[in-house]
Amino acid sequence: MSDGHGSTPDTPPGWASNQPPPYGNAPGSPWTAPGSAPGATAPQQPQPPYGPPGPPYQPGPYQQGPYGPPPHGHHTPPAMRPGIIPLRPLGLGDILDGAIKLIRSNPGAVLGLSAIAAALGAIPVAIGQALLLGQAGAAFDDPSVLENQEVGFLSQYGGTLISYAVQFIAVTLLTGVLTRILGRAVFGGKMTVGEAWKLTRGRVPTLFGLVIVGMVLLLLPLALVIAIITGLGAAGADLATLFLVGALVVLGFVAYSLFITTRLALAASVAVLERRGVAESLRRSWRLVSGGFWRTLGILLLTQIIAGVVALALSFPFTLAGTFVGMFGAGSTGSLIGAAVLIAVGGTVSAMITYPFQAGVNGLLYADRRMRAEAFDLVLQTAAIEQQRQGWVHASADDLWDPSVTPAGAGRGAPWHSS
């Protein structure tokens, strides 16, 4: 009988009849579950109307957030990508893909400038190699041709030395111009060759200064290595000692050169995009690479390997054809010209692809290090949102890369600034 409070004889006082009481056989408990008395039959549990329950929901690792699993069906929205890269810290695939998209997004300016720089560097080498191949072909008929060592030295090394001098100028200028184009391409904007050169020409002295400082930092230790090995040889050291010391010194120089080039790899991007001087660009690159040295070194080495393989694959057919023409042309003027043209075309085609690819990787490494070390991706996203609202990429986006730019100096209609 009910006591007037909704309880039954099988329900403890204070519990509603439609709620399960705290049954159990705990020691000292006056209540026992129905059917748990001796000789009683356990009641059948009702089955759910849609079958037995499945396993509890377990979020996948890609859904786990920093504050616990997100609600069912929640997915992190992709990062903004107005241009060649997503505006977030970049992975290896993002950097390599962005470097390729740099070429595809503005092929006229990028490939045109790269072709000019590549041709200027390839032509002297091609002429020297063609002369050397012509001499090798003529030596089959007249071995006395090889006795002229002066001509052989000039044909073998003269073109290479001239090519290095030309590349020193052309590649330095190309790196600056391509970095400026990349700074606009991150937002999806394009830039003509004239506009890129106008924005870069003021940074040319700084770029040459960076290259000269880098060469000095590498050549001085190299001269020390040569002096040590030469001194050991002059002192009459035995071959085993000379080999061991020489190997250790060379390995030390390789480690030093990798360390220096990695630490200073971002200096050109800093000089162009942030408009800093030589010393400030070197210090800035050194600081940005801190905390990501090994990752930066690995990406740079991988880029060199990829560029080398691509260059070899593109230039090999032309070089092979030029070799046959030069060697089997019996030293004739036509064969020399044909060999030089073929070798120059191969070098130009390979370099016009690899130059912008390497410059793009360096520029995107700079952007990635700023996003990781300075949360620069938030600044880029704010600017990209405003540009999407306006419907176009204003030239003032170039000023965004300069941390010293104030809101008033960020350009017309530009509401952003860097911190």
Task: Give the gist of this structure.
The protein has one domain. 62% of the residues lie in helices and 0% in strands.
Helix-strand layout with pairing:
Blueprint: H1 92-105, H2 107-139, H3 149-185, H4 193-200, H5 204-234, H6 239-263, H7 267-273, H8 278-289, H9 293-327, H10 333-374, H11 376-390
Protein name: DUF7847 domain-containing protein
InterPro entries: DUF7847
Keywords: Membrane, Transmembrane, Transmembrane helix
Can you walk me through this structure?
Helices cover 62% and strands 0% of the residues. It has 419 residues and is mostly helical. The protein has one domain (92-386). Helix 3 (149-185) crosses helix 5 (204-234) and helix 9 packs antiparallel against helix 10. The longest helix is centred in the C-terminal third of the chain and has 42 residues, at 333-374. The radius of gyration is 35 Å and the shape is globular. Pfam families: DUF7847. This is DUF7847 domain-containing protein. Keywords: Membrane, Transmembrane, Transmembrane helix.
- Point out poorly predicted stretches: 1-9, 23-29, 59-67, 148-152, 406-419
Backbone structural class: mainly alpha
Count the domains.
1
* Helical fraction: 55-70%
Gap between N and C termini: 77 Å
- Overall spatial form: globular
User: Topology as H/E string?
Assistant: HHHHHHHHHHH
What is the mean predicted local confidence, pLDDT?
A: 77
Radius of gyration: 35 Å
Strands, total number: 0
Tell me about the biggest sheet?
none
Which percent band covers the strand fraction? under 5%
Number of helices: 11
